[in-house]
Amino acid sequence: MRTVLNVIWLVFSGIWMALGYAVAGLICFIPIVTIPWGLACFRIARYSLWPFGYRVTDRPDAGIFSGIGNVIWLIVAGIWITIGHITAGIAFCITIIGIPFGIAHFKMIPVSLMPLGREIVPTDANPGYHW
C-alpha cells in the first residue's frame, strides 16, 4: 500500500515539491555560509519524493547551532514553506481520497519549519538508522 500511495503522491505533489526543495538547496549552496540549509533542503527533497513509510525524528546530537540555524531558517523561508504545506494539506483533505496526501503534507510541516537537527528514518527502522 505504501508503494501505491507513494506513486500517486509522486505524480500529484512529490515531483513539484522535490524540485522546489532542490532549487532552494542549490541556491543555498551559492553562499558558503548557507550550505547546512542546502543540505537540509536536499534531505527534505528526497523525503518529499517518497514520504510514505518514513518519519522525521530529532537528532539527539544536535546542538545550539542547529537551534540558531532553525530560527534563521524560520524567519527567511520556513514560515512560507509551512504555509504552503498547510494550504496543500487542507486542499487534499477536502476529498476523501486525498486525506492520506493531506496528512503527508501535514507530516512535513515540522521538518520544513525547522530542518536542522532532524533526520528522516523509515517508520520500521532501528533507532540508529538514518539518511
TrEMBL record:
Which GO cellular component term is one of those annotated? plasma membrane
- A Pfam family: YccF
Record bears the keyword Transmembrane helix: yes
Keywords annotated in UniProt: Membrane, Transmembrane, Transmembrane helix
Tell me if Protein transport is a UniProt keyword of this record.
no
**Record-annotated Inner membrane component domain positions:** 4-53, 68-118
Which InterPro entries does the annotation name?
Answer: Inner_membrane_protein (IPR052937), UCP028777 (IPR031308), YccF (IPR005185)
Q: Which residues form a coiled coil?
A: none
The regions listed as transmembrane in this protein's record are 15-42, 62-83, 89-109
Protein name (record): YccF domain-containing protein
Q: Which organism encodes this protein?
A: Streptomyces lonarensis
